[in-house]
Amino acid sequence: MARTELETPALRGRRWWAEVGWRHVVGWVMILICVLPLVYVFSASLNPGGTLTGSNKLFRTFDLQNYSELFAEGYQDWFVNSIIICTVAALGTVLMGAAAAYAFSRFRFQGRHGGLTALLIVQMFPQMLAFVAIFLILLSIGDVFPALGLNSRLGLTAVYLGGALGVNTFLMYGFFNTVPRELDEAAKIDGASHAQIFWKIILRLVAPILAVVGLLSFIGTWSEFLVAKVVLQRQEEFTLAVGLYYWGSDERNAQWGLFAAGAVLAAIPVVVLFLFLQKWIVSGLTAGSVKG
Amino acid sequence: MTDQKIEAPPVTPDTAPPRRVRGDDSHARNFSAGFVVKLVLVGLVDALGVYGILTALAVQSWAIVAFLVLALVVVNWVYFSRRAVPGKYLVPGLLFLLVYQLFVMAYTGYVAFTNYGDGHNSDKADAIEAISIQNETRVEGSPTLPLTVLNQDGELGFAIVQDGDVQVGSAEEPFAPADDATVEGGKVTAVPGWEVLGFAQIAQQQDAITTLRVPFSDDPSEGSVRTQDGSTGYVYESTLEYDAATDTFTDAATGETYTPADSGNFVSEDGDVLTPGWRVGVGFDNFTKVFTDSRLAGPFAQITVWTFAFAFLSVLTTFALGLFLAIVFNDNRIRGRKIYRSLLILPYAVPGFLSALVWRGMLNARFGFINEVLLGGADINWLGNPWLAKLSILGVNLWLGFPYMFLVCTGALQSIPADTIEAARIDGAGTWRVFRAMTLPLLMISVAPLLIASFAFNFNNFTLIYMLTGGGPNFVGTPVVVGHTDILISMVYAVAFESGNKQYGLASALSILIFLIVGLISFFSFRRTRTLEEI
Amino acid sequence: MRRSIPVVAAMVGLALTLTACSGSDDSGDDASAAPSESAAATGTLTMWVDDTRIDEMKPVVAAFSEESGVQVDLVQKPTGDIGKDFVAQVPTGEGPDVIVSAHDGLGEWVKNGVVAPVELGDKAGDFSESALAGVTYDGKTYGTPISIENIALVRNNALVAETKATTFDELIAEGKAAGKPFSVLIQQGEASDPYHLYPLQTSFGAPVFEQNADGSYTDTLALGGPAGEAFATYLAKLGADKVLDLAVSGDQAKQAFLDGNAPYMITGPWNTSAFEEAGMDISVLPVPSAGGQPAQPFVGVQGVFVSSKSKNPVLANELVVNYLSTEAAQDMLYQEGGRMPANAASAAKVDNPILKGFGEAGATGAPMPAIPAMSSVWAFWGATEAQIISGQAEPVSAWNTMVAQIQEAVDKV
Fold it and tell me: Is position A11 within any domain?
């Protein structure tokens, strides 16, 4: 990547504006739109006892009390819980989803069409009763495997893995299909097994989409609280989303300052993770190697 | 940056991967290493499974036993047979899907055929118990009796102090004077022939003690003494008496009998109903209610149109913006594009719950940022005008949803060969033409199913509507409180829950019907995409 | 590095799975109640508390454990879910033994048979009438009331030093004289707020249901008729005068009062603590009547209830009936939580002028009805008031339509 940049002759003046400059303008405008509502959140996080949207006079106080209070409430535990649960769920989703996408993309078997369609449609099933159903099933599983039952972070992770084969599988499936089969054939002729092709060839070539799916799954579980609050009932086991939900759930006594401070800190890992994963997502190398 | 430079060369050559596979590891060694890993993993799963089966047998969870046995057989067959190659890649994910997702489906499906909901919350035994305890009434004007719990060879009894006299009785024996008992501080502390139970002993057999009824006298109509805390007794009488032999409740005062009815309630001949009832199957009743409940008929058409419009426009706008941004920043000449990209997903990184509240504040007609600051004190009723409220919902959903599409498109764009595009450009194709003829179709291969899924998601996007407008502005005078921005699923909530009587059965049936609609639409649009036919 | 993604992924995954495994074992044993050394442990109670009450409950429950040897495992639940989860989980046998919650879910719990009656016996006399009415449903007592709260008129003493107004109209005039953007703030929102408007409504003699002599509700609606119509007309007038504005929701009202933009606000104790923290000098007064009769707010009662399927009914009753009802326990709850105790003797000792002001304003109030149909009543009520205030609907006819709809909803349940 660095090399290509060097090779491109530096653009100047009008041409730069026409080809690159306007993109910066779009970037700035979009960032402004993205950040604006969050400025309220940030302002509220610096104002103990204030309101979330009561006034447009932002940043009238600058007081870090909310942030220090976070840690008295066990916020750091939630943070660690969320990181662990979401990382495991994201890795599990990527691995299982990629495996399934590989099967759908590279093998021809009975029920393949039906299976693909079913996977997509299952995800659309209303989750309205999920709070009762998940509670009941974890209750019975807990009798047999206590580590997977209620009040278990591992149990919650397992529930999240239940959604591993979903819409993300399609994203990977479509991407896998763009990797020419000739590559597999060549490897097969060289004596590679299907497992070797999967682990050593395909997974590497589809790194961008793995990173995207991992990120999507991470963010999805990061902000999920409907199932988490059913499974986790002890404060020290909470994920960030559940902890924040508790602060915001009571309309009259909601602790917006704490909620806002918690949300600001919670957004950081997601942004950092994306910053870090971009290396894999837009390496610019895959395209060249896929030519086949 | 640095390690990319170092790493780049070995992966770049087109034909490198297959060759390297052979070069790096000898085939035989690799096979055995892989086999060992497989053996260990399947062995672990088997061990866990067998442990699970044994435990499940011990706690008599037959469903779990059956499931585990079946799962173990499938897993072992799939991984040790040479024939089930696709299975090897599908089984792990499918197992999780089966346990956690299909169970929710099955449970919802089951509930749709029952009357589960408020007043029909549990089984019949619970209902009988609840009716019994709710209809046991303290005899008016009866005294507070200091009470001591006694035990005689496993039989429990009560000793009470009434007007200074000690009386002892048990379930079989009504209270009779016991003059030889010791009383200290107004309470009986010893009764010859009985053991006095302390608090810790009472705690050991709480159920037996709270269900013990000692007849107050030989005359049953005088009621019986019971205690809830092991230290105070009151005289109670049952206003409704349950008879297990005939399975009926009888009103002690009027003699009216209540018999169990198919509706899952005890009902008298006059049609009086006792609550709580219990959960029973009701066949297709919940489904037919959709067509008979007049409350659903009112604004139904209007809400359906808006639901489709909302779901479709949400997908269209978020996808268009997400794709546009993905393309804009898919150009490595832009300095700082990593930072741009990372900041663009901010709306996705903050809890949606919070964002919706902030947006509601910003859209406030008099004090919101949009009117007061951006539009210099304009008086635009963003959430109060039916059309503007719809526009606001779409706008906020665009803000919330474009980062997802942006991420997906950024990833999917990487599968499009840059040199093909380059070649088209050299041939003189304009940007728009390249986009229409090459980028978009190629992108659609992997993204089309996601758009369908996104449509389905928005079709049921209850949370957004609920948090931003609550469905409002409301229609005037409709039989259910629904409004211009309500979608089908939020209307289901209004009908099935907000009437103060949560009807999970009805809600399940309605949401399954909605699922059928969405599922069918998705099924047909899915068939029309090229995804399945590819390759 | 790229080469090793799957391997790294697998390793990290394994390591994290293991940590997650080991991490999940430690749940449950550090309940907030510390084990007491003096008394032998006699059992453990599980107690659900909504998140706004948990901090004040911890020391009280610890004292109970110390005294009785009964361990109490406090579980925090979100305010919005505690009632729903209670109904869903009690039948599975996994619910709590004891639940602390606002009383307005009681009707639903009774209807579902998840809550057991308790016998307060002579202790019933220790509580204020409205507190007791809150934990009573269909003539039966289901719990021990611990605190009560209600809304009242809060005055910013820096803007108006003295209130002479005896009617709401005079109050508005007085408020306007202060020359601030708002006179009397009453929080609204797109769906209005019948709870905050209720004192005005009752002052027209239009309470939601008729009440028996003992304060309990009958199922006869009372908000209709000429009294209700008069209130509806008054609402429309307040809306036209911009005294009531749907754009003023909770956040805006609180901030406006904090900023000194309004001399008066009708609100509850949950906001006054923020006002005091901001260093404001405030007084709490009863709401002046708008329609000639006393303006009575709804009284919210926090109660402790016992599950009908508790496996520890004796211990639960020991805690709920014999311990939490006492003056000593309620004194402690007041000190920790700062809400008006339900125990009359404890309440009499409260000398905080602000809480006393709320207490006086709520003295005539009746508890919020706890019938299951209430959620439907609130929905119709709010929607109609919003349409009247915004001038979208003709007040009298809209009000009458609403009464008919509410009647239908109440009949149905």
Answer: no
